[in-house]
Amino acid sequence: MNFVIANQLKSDRNQKSALSWIAIYYAKAGQPDQGLQITKRVGDDEDFLVLIVEKYIDAGYPNQVINLLSLIKFKEESTKSSQLESIAQQLVWVGQLDGALHTANLIDDINIKNRTLALIAYQYAEAGQYLKAKEITQVLNNSAERQWLTQLLTCTQQQ
Question: Are 57 and 94 in contact (CB under 8 A)?
Answer without folding.
Answer: yes
